[in-house]
Amino acid sequence: MLESHGFSSTDSHEWNLLWSSSSLKSYQYEGLNEYQKINHFPQSYEITRKDRLCFNIVRMQERYGKSAFDFSPDTYILPDEFGDFYNHYQKLKQHESKKNVWIVKPANACQGRGIYLVDDINDVNVDETSVICKYITNPLLINGHKFDLRIYVLVTSYEPMRIYVFQEGLARFASETYTQKINKNNKYMHLTNYSINKKNEKFIQNENSEQDDFGYKWSLGAFCKHLEQVGIDMNLLWSRIYDVILKTLLCGENYVQASMKKNGTHRTNCFELFGFDILIDSDLKPWLIEVNLSPSLASDSPLDMSIKSNLVCDTFNLIGLKRFDRKKESINKIKHRMKGLYSKGKKSGLGNGIQGTSLQPAHGGGNSDVFHN
């Protein structure tokens, strides 16, 4: 996308866009020019790391009440909160009618790596940092399959908060039929990650972007159309999803704002394209599964190519990315000022030029608007 619009990769310090697949160090946000853009805000990981997301949601629940931030399943950070998890697990175990199934995820991994289900507390590994959350046993099903939604959210500013939700996205299906008799070892039934399910011999790949409700990956538009056809109020469902997105971003807002001020970063220097993973249960309640810092922009299918290319194009347009030649702009500024002084001189009767004036950039800077006579 960038190359087709005249951009090229560079090792120079004169860059317009810095695109990183991981979080950056604080010093990389210092001393940026007004035209430079970075695809991450400092401390965005406060909502993209699973352990930090858990911590910050609980913090907001304690401040505003659990009912206001009840879009995340009961979650504990291991091993630090194992005692609290143990007590909760034992209480649920006393109610035989309730399924006591939990899902364990590494604190800072992606693409479904290291995820496993447990229904016995002795199977929980407490030797490494992870999060354990209550497994949602009543997911909404389409054609008998569990699914989640990948919703793309672009934040262009935290102060003021400015958020855009891309109108398209993906509905990703588990590649085997969901059953109430939970087989905790069948990852193709429980996990909706594309990187996992594509390895299943039963996986059906999308081959045509026009057929966006085929196979185990649909477009978000096709998903919404399907639910409308079966009588679901999509306006109500989307209002609930927006509520989840907004409140999740608020969980990390203070961290980002404080870090931006500390680094002296201008509010337009950063942007963030998040990938929100949302699960809908049978009561049409959206649950936040996780937030991805760098959602995959790979295009393994025509549907991926269609959706993600438009997503990237819209992102660059919304952040105002443009080709910017710093040296050329500096020369143009000098010419503009000289033209202004020339016009001023003519009005003052100084003749056809400016006599005895030497223009030098202030403080030796090549991009300064201040000049000395």
CATH architecture classification of the largest domain: 2-Layer Sandwich
- The secondary-structure element order is EEHHEHEEEEEEHHEHHEEHHEE
What number of domains? Answer: 3
Give the N-terminus to C-terminus distance in angstroms: 45 Å
Mind describing the biggest β-sheet? 6 strands, antiparallel
Question: What would CATH call the homologous superfamily of the largest domain?
Answer: ATP-grasp fold, B domain
Query: For the record, what CATH class of the largest domain applies?
Result: Alpha Beta
In terms of DSSP E residues, the strand content is 15-25%
Radius of gyration computed on alpha carbons: 26 Å
Low-confidence stretches: 348-373
Which outline best applies?
globular
Please report the number of helical segments: 9
